[in-house]
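Dear support,

We are seeing what looks like truncated structure output for some complexes. This example has two components. We would appreciate it if you could run it in full and send us the complete token output so we can diff it against ours.
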Amino acid sequence: AQSVTQPDIHITVSEGASLELRCNYSYGATPYLFWYVQSPGQGLQLLLKYFSGDTLVQGIKGFEAEFKRSQSSFNLRKPSVHWSDAAEYFCAPLGTASKLTFGTGTRLQVTL
Amino acid sequence: EAGVAQSPRYKIIEKRQSVAFWCNPISGHATLYWYQQILGQGPKLLIQFQNNGVVDDSQLPKDRFSAERLKGVDSTLKIQPAKLEDSAVYLCASSLGGVRNEKLFFGSGTQLSVL
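Here is the complete output from our reference environment:
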């Protein structure tokens, strides 16, 4: 069965520190992969996506993600976190029938 | 450009009552999606429209949920009768084409509480 796992429910980092949010997927073939962010009171916004090619993809707001086929992972990273990055982050593989499946999310808290 | 509009923003009803949500997608977007997001979970696709035709409604509880997209623009999602477990945020999203090549634009959602 197709599934996506975000192992970390809640992460707290200090402003200026680096960030890595984990995402693992289980699909028969490599799916398209997306990261979305949901800020309080706002709709979901696409951060970045991976279809094929270069395994390191750049997104908006200084985020990047690396696709690792051997580990079935697509982790999201940011070198230096800003207080405004506090939000919920969702990994979302696109599987069969073009169905986008969202993970359970990781809530990021940023301390000043 | 204007974003995806949803109303109402909040709704509180008692179980067994009915409720309807409205969505106005971004102008020109052919594909419209309704997602249900239960607290602590990621959004789950309920139904996907391409223009005014249904592409995927495999996870829509059809005994109580219904949705329509007349004229391929606005859409309404209805629940009748509501159950306690329907308490969630209902998100509408739209895209120019299919999700494979186009990013989804999400509305702010309607938060439903069923008492």
